[in-house]
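Q: My labmate handed me this sequence with no annotations at all. I'd like to see what the chain might look like in three dimensions before we decide whether it's worth expressing. Could you predict it?
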Amino acid sequence: MELARRIWQECYASILSSAQIEYMLEQRYNEALLREQLRQKKTHWDVLYVNEQMVGFSHYFLTPVGSMKLDKLYLLDEARGQGLGRRFLARIEAKMRSLRVQHLELAVNRANGQAQAAYQQWGFIQSGALQIDIGGGFVMDDFLMTKKVTAVFQNPTREACCQLLKKAKTMAVIGLSPNPDRPSYGVAQAMQGFGFRIIPVHPTASVILGEKVYPDLASIPYPVDLVNVFRSAPFIDEAVDQTLAKGVKSLWIQEGIVNESAATRALEAGVMVVMDRCIYRDYRDYCQAPDISPRPKAME
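A: Here is what I predict for the chain of 300 residues:
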């Protein structure tokens, strides 16, 4: 309740009276209601901590008609402008994709132009208006906004993957370890044995597999056909950013790594994306390549 009160004072002091703010806080954040919401399977709460301090939260739930309602998404002023709102939204959209829900809806105060602009930037469109008497002599006067969330991510067909791998010659590997015992090293070594030029991307190493190492994709001074990523899910957004900035049109996210919101963002930007698949195994199996290179430790 105290975090909600602080955020509401920051957000609504110039829009609502202090009496309405306190009335709505008691309506929406009383302990009995919150406990009931936490028990409901179709209701979800996310909280965000920065340096062990809670700085924001979101609340969303499935409606009877099968859409997702974003009921709350709030951040302290000090946490705004850092992309954290987008992270909340990406988590909500990932949940929607897992449930195969496509429509996200919310209500925003008519006078809250800052919030409206943010939601529009995130792909929402105004779809209506709503006035509700909430009791106590107060009225909610909102715009309704909606967003269609793209379908659940699906990998390309085997044929498409094989075509991609047969065309690609130069492969940048983000997260390629200089340690021969790491799966990234074994897989990259195998792909090098199949004839691919491997371009290691690592923040500190200088040479891996006989190739010069670059700290990021932007530092590579020549075109890249395919980006292969060996980083954990939270770092895939950064890999997508680098891929888009470099203009690479193919991205392969290794087996065991899933970040649907990042993969979908790359897809929507025109990049072919393969996710949660082993590039070595797929090349060997789909493209019927001769097994001429050492078997990667990840495959043993």
